[in-house]
Amino acid sequence: VKRQVSVRKSSDGVTWKDALSYRYPDTKYIYADPKAIADDGGDSIYVAGQVQSNAVETGNKTISRWEVLKSSDQGTTWTNVDDYLHPTDSENAMSVTAMGTAGAGVVYVVGTSSTGRYGDQPLRRWLVRRTIDGGTSWTTADDYYPEDGAFIPKSVYVDGNTFYVAGSRYLTSR
User: Fold this and answer.
1) CA gap 105, 84 in Å, rounded
2) Which candidate, 71, 60, 85, places its Cα nearest to that of 37?
């Protein structure tokens, strides 16, 4: 079963139509999981999530990557503006959890990257990626990995120039 990113839109809350049906271009990636949608206060809409490979086609190892898609024409056309896999992700398990905007062209995407395991629990880094130019370029604004556990960011709030990320923490020590 293959899953793709789908977005539907309505101008009146009653009549709905498709705005996006997107499948990652590399056919090894069969699973799409959008997690957040936001507008930047300008003309652009962003959808963030992850795509996952078919383990059989990638050497029996599942690979997940971040994806951020952007539309600047009310959802008529979409462009992939961030395709990200953390350079030290030992489990190849990227996960987007939330997204926030702070004005036209300023977008923050938060999520996790696996860094190994503690018993049966994955150890995850807390990641924040951002663009300040509408998705043309992206940087990792926060890459946090505590030695005594794992953080999983869950939500985003922007108040003017202050950016908040809330999440949970799993401790490996007592």
Assistant:
1) 19
2) 71
* Cβ–Cβ < 8 Å for 103, 40: yes
Which tens digit of pLDDT belongs to each residue from 71-120? 998 888 888 899 888 776 655 677 888 898 888 889 999 988 876 665 56
Q: How far apart are CA 81 and CA 69, in angstroms?
A: 6
- B/e letters for 148-158, b = 16+ CB within 10 Å, e = fewer, are ebbbbbeebee
> With DSSP H G I counted as helix, E B as strand and the rest as coil, what are the percentages for the chain, rounded to 5?
0, 60, 40
Helix (H) / strand (E) containing 16 = none
Report residue 30 as tokens: 């069969």
pTM for the model stands at: 0.80
What's the rounded Cα separation, in Å, for the pair 46 and 100? 10
Task: Give pLDDT tens digits for 31-62.
Answer: 677 888 898 888 899 998 887 776 555 566 66
